[in-house]
Design a protein that fits this description.
Helices cover 83% and strands 0% of the residues. It contains eight helices and no strands.
Length: 191
């Protein structure tokens, strides 16, 4: 779920960063600087413990985890999108504009399709990093794979076996996702 929201956030702020409005570029830059600059564990503590305590409410753990990962990954996706769009030669946009295409249509029809091909490896990398970052959220009590391992170790005192199992499970999931993403990357590059 976090990856979905991170992609939406990244699209919004990524287009703001490459847009023509200086104010929106500034807002997007501040967003990226804040959420890339704060370590994920500090962000998790701030969202789960800090904000609710300051505002006098209780935040569900799952919501805090999704917000933390979405904001962190969204900042990185913003930069992936910005970098992908800016990697396309300016001449592409100039040629489209000289043919009479408006800015928005030139972006949609000419620049973005080329930029997507450049962005795919970085998106795959960010997806894997975000998946691995879920283990950090065990510090706020999110019961995911790492936290589950801790719970089983507390009951069985079998550290080696459990951590080996957790590591193998992460490897299986991440290698599977990477292979699927590599396959999709080849498909997109071939057209």
């Amino acid at each position: 779920m976090s990856l979905f929201f991170a992609f939406i956030i990244g699209l919004i702020f990524g287009f703001m960063k490459v847009g023509q409005n200086k104010f929106l570029r500034g807002v997007a830059t501040v967003f990226v600087d804040i959420f890339r600059g704060i370590p994920l564990i500090v962000l998790a503590f701030f969202i789960y413990f800090g904000i609710p305590q300051a505002m006098g409410f209780t935040m569900p753990l799952f919501l805090a985890a999704i917000l933390t990962l979405s904001l962190n990954a969204g900042a990185y996706v913003t930069e992936i999108i910005r970098g992908g769009i800016q990697s396309i030669d300016r001449g592409q946009m100039e040629a489209a504009r000289s043919l009479g295409l408006p800015y928005r249509k030139a972006m949609i029809k000419i620049v973005i399709p080329q930029a997507v091909r450049v962005m795919i490896p970085s998106f795959i990398n960010q997806m894997v990093i975000t998946l691995k970052d879920t283990s950090i959220l065990s510090v706020i009590g999110l019961v995911e794979l790492t936290q589950s391992g801790k719970i089983v170790i507390a009951r069985t005192f079998s550290s080696f076996d459990i951590w080996l199992t957790v590591a193998v499970m992460y490897l299986i999931v991440i290698i599977t996702l990477t292979k699927i993403a590599d396959y999709l990357e080849v498909k997109v590059r071939r057209g």
